[in-house]
Amino acid sequence: GVFxxxxxxxxxxxxxxxxxxxxHYKSLLFQKCCFGIGNIDDPxxxxxxxxxxxxxxxxxxxxxxxxxxxxxxxVNRNGQLGTFFKVNGEEYAVSAPGEFSVYNxxxxxxxxxxxxxxxxxxRKALKTIRVPGRVEVIDNDRGYLLLIDYxxxxxxxxxxxxxxxxxxxHRLVSLFGxxxxxxxQRRFEMGEVSGRLADLTxxxxxxxxxxxxxxxxxxxxxxxxxxxxxxxxxCDRKEAIRYAIEHGKPGDVIVLAGKGxxxxxxxxxxxxxxxxxxxxxxxxxELHGE
Length: 290
Hints:
35% of the residues lie in helices and 24% in strands. The protein is α/β, with parallel strands linked by helices. Helix 5 (154-165) runs parallel beside helix 6 (184-197) and helix 6 crosses helix 7 (213-224).
């Protein structure tokens, strides 16, 4: 079992009543497995492992641990964002941006070491691995970096935007919506995070499920208005993506958050086909007059 982190997700009606209950149920994993790997930098680490019955191995990017990352360096090579780092003196590189990518890589390295995987195989995998919908770069000819990511709660969005800000973009543009029939608090929090960290937020629709998309957008705006962040609202997700692509400027980083690997949009109980890669390709083709 691997514990990476715990944030405010799955809290609300028909989900967990609070963080204490959420953490409790997560912690049960480590009473079921034989070997537990834990991120000791996360505030919930002690809570998660306090009743663990398994053997425990810790990892960290900030303090002494069984497996410890150090010398983290951000890299931007022709619009390809990545990181270099060391683990217990061994050098690694991962083709994804930011500290959170290092945390994920170190967790994977720890699992591989447990199973005796050769170091060179680990290195090669980390350099070449691409995870659909996770800081996925979409090629374009417009001079900016366009990304798709699954960030769908405040913790994930804050981590993503903070990471992308570290690469010093001309502007950081955040496009997202929130799921229907989920906690309204998540919407307030995501609006506030994007308003605080992005230069421009484009509020749109995600999976509205059985709610009205505009009602969800209005909730997001409540969080946005706690900040000085600039925003616009475009309910139709394809039109929102079109706006982002058309108005992007050279040197910008534009992130489409929330959908990630998903290739559908859920409305009134029906999953309609919708892949952001397809939408982006359609918009770029239309802008080229094809």
